[in-house]
């Protein structure tokens, strides 16, 4: 995913399905470097990771 799309998803009131390495995640924060984000597993608030935005994948829109 490119950083611009990540920003759109992050700031949208809609809920988007985003994955990292095949696992569903939430984007918690986009970093000013324009390359990385802090994310957590959709079902686990405890584990947060900093990842490359380019490795995030938009799956589909949740209705």
UniProtKB/TrEMBL annotation:
InterPro entries: SASP_SspH. One of its GO terms (cellular component) is endospore-forming forespore. It is found in: Spore core. Its main location: other. It comes from the Bacteria. One of its GO terms (biological process) is asexual sporulation. The keyword Cell wall biogenesis/degradation does not apply. Keywords: Sporulation. Belongs to the SspH family. This is H-type small acid-soluble spore protein. It comes from Ureibacillus endophyticus.
